[in-house]
Amino acid sequence: MRGCDIAIVGGGLAGASLATALAPLGYDICIIEAVEFKTDGQPSYDDRTLALSHSSCQILRGIGLWESLEADATAIRKITVTEFERPGQVVLDAVDMGLSEFGHVVEARRFGAHVTRILSNTNNIRVLCPARVMGVETAGQKNTLQIESEGVEDKLTASLVVAADGANSFVRTHLGIAGQSHDYGQTAIICNITPEFTHDGRAFECLTTTGPFAVLPHTGKRCGLVWSVASDQAEHLLGLEDEEFMKNAQDRFGSCLGAFKKVGKRTAYPLRLVRSIEDIGQRLVILGNAAHAIHPVGAQGFNLALRDVAVLAEVLADDEHGDPGNAGLLHQYSHWRGPDQDKTIRYSDGLTRLFSHPSALVAGFRSTGLLAHALIPGLRRRLAINAMGYRGRIPRLALGERLVIA
Q1: More exposed terminus of the chain, fewer Cβ within 10 Å: N or C?
Q2: Final residue of a structural domain among 270, 305, 320
Q3: Does the residue 81 lie in any domain?
Q4: Which domain holds residue 350?
Q5: Looking at the structure, do residues 43 and 30 belong to the same domain, yes or no?
Q6: Among 270, 296, 316, where does a domain finish?
Q7: Cα(281)–Cα(172) distance, rounded to whole angstroms?
Q8: Is the pLDDT of residue 126 over 90?
Q9: Residue 362 covered by a domain
């Protein structure tokens, strides 16, 4: 039987970021990941485009990831929000807020390459991969994980277990922690696309009755495309020839970037809301998509997870007792994270339901809301601040500070 201070179940975006954030605090950390990082089957490090908010970039800078990641990142300098086939638009310009950018865009695959390299070169982080957690026992001063790797079973004890194993979290389910789930009946088609004109750091989000159609600036002239459609339409779009797919996308997007010239591999992701009723347990934290998988409207999913990471790291950095699984610490984390999680989930879920509502009266209300944001600078500023991840009590990492051990 092996032991560690903190066992992180899941080495994807949230789990790997957390390990990187906690490593300077001196804990003995173990990551258990079921899928090898460099395989096509690794779901976290695929071709998706990650829109990182301003606060998320600050967090990544504070945990030592941004320095190597920045060369692969593209700044978001202007955001245009519209509603499909309805009047009005909201334009957010970073210059108007005295900023150089609202955030950056990074390909998930590139993020994975950087973070896994850091994990492998950090002395107090062990990565068990491929390895699966087969059971969890919570008792006393340690939790025990039953692990299977390449046909060999073993046990691992930890003072704190972090479930960062995604929306279908085995740990959460195994421990009988209830979760709320809602299927939106929508599927996101993800790909890279190259338009005729350069994007100049502009991001576009067109809100439709089947979810957002978002075009995000990427390296060179490329853009990341996120096209949410009714789930029964997804297979049809995936099966189209490239030229026909681009024609359909062009009809939806318009010509502000000229003609779409090239499209990359397309991947589909069913969209649903999953939220754990509890985010802590006995020497347990449920974090990232395991705690809250949300709709991509507004691009807040991974950003919300990074704020989880920043707060948990700060709480543990300020601990004077040296026990990362202390119940008081975990309640402090949960109390701090609750308001931000609640507001972000209500925003993404509410916006999705609002724009999928078929009523003409509701459509008029939506258009009025867009017009109000277009005309009133204070509303645009508040929208931008929330989108950048600065709400409520802000963790030190999001303010550009480094964490030191108490």
Answers
A1: N
A2: 270
A3: no
A4: 2-75+100-181+273-398
A5: yes
A6: 270
A7: 10
A8: yes
A9: yes
| Tokens linked to 158 | 């930890």
CA distances for 54 relative to 177, 213, 220, 352, angstroms: 33, 22, 21, 23
Domains: count for the chain: 2
Q: List all residues 6 or more positions away from 109 whose beta carbon is below 8 Å from its beta carbon.
A: 45, 46, 47
- Which residues sit opposite 263 in a β-bridge? 193
Average pLDDT score over residue span 148-163: 92
Please report where in the chains the tokens 């189209």 appear, as a residue.
Answer: 240
User: Taking phi first (over 0 means left), then psi (-120 to 50 degrees means alpha), and beta for anything else, what does residue 166 get?
Assistant: left
Report the C-alpha gap between 226 and 214 in whole angstroms.
Answer: 5
**Cβ neighbours around 316 below 10 Å, total:** 27
39: Cβ–Cβ under 8 A, 6 or more apart, which residues?
none
Give dist(CA 312, CA 244) in Å, integer: 47
Amino acid at 23: A
Mean pLDDT, rounded, for 218-241: 94
State the pLDDT at residue 274. Answer: 94
Asked whether residue 85 is assigned to any structural domain, the reply reads: no
| 100-125 average pLDDT score | 92
Q: Do both 15 and 138 map to the same domain?
A: yes
DSSP string for 41-58: T-SSSSSPEEEEEHHHHH
Same domain, 245 and 350: no
- Distance, in Å, from the CA atom of 314 to the CA atom of 111, rounded to the nearest integer, reads 23
Nearest to 225 by CA among 239, 214, 234, 236: 214
Residue 206 β-bridge partners: 82, 213
What residues contact residue 297 under an 8 Å CB cut-off, 6+ apart? 205, 207, 211, 212, 228, 348, 351, 352, 355
If you count them, how many residues does the chain have? 406
Q: What is the pLDDT of residue 139?
A: 84
Q: Are residues 215 and 237 in the same domain?
A: yes
Shared domain check, 310 and 192: no
Q: Say yes or no: 138 and 10 in one domain.
A: yes
Residue 163, burial from CB neighbour count under 10 angstroms (0-12, 13-18, 19+): buried
Q: Give yes or no for a contact between 404 and 322, defined as CB atoms under 8 angstroms apart.
A: no
Label residue 378 exposed, middle or buried (CB < 10 Å: 0-12, 13-18, 19+).
exposed
Check which CATH number belongs to the domain holding 25 and give it: 3.50.50.60
388 token code pair: 């950048």
Tell me, yes or no, whether 263 and 277 share the same domain. Answer: no
| pLDDT over 70 at 239, yes or no | yes
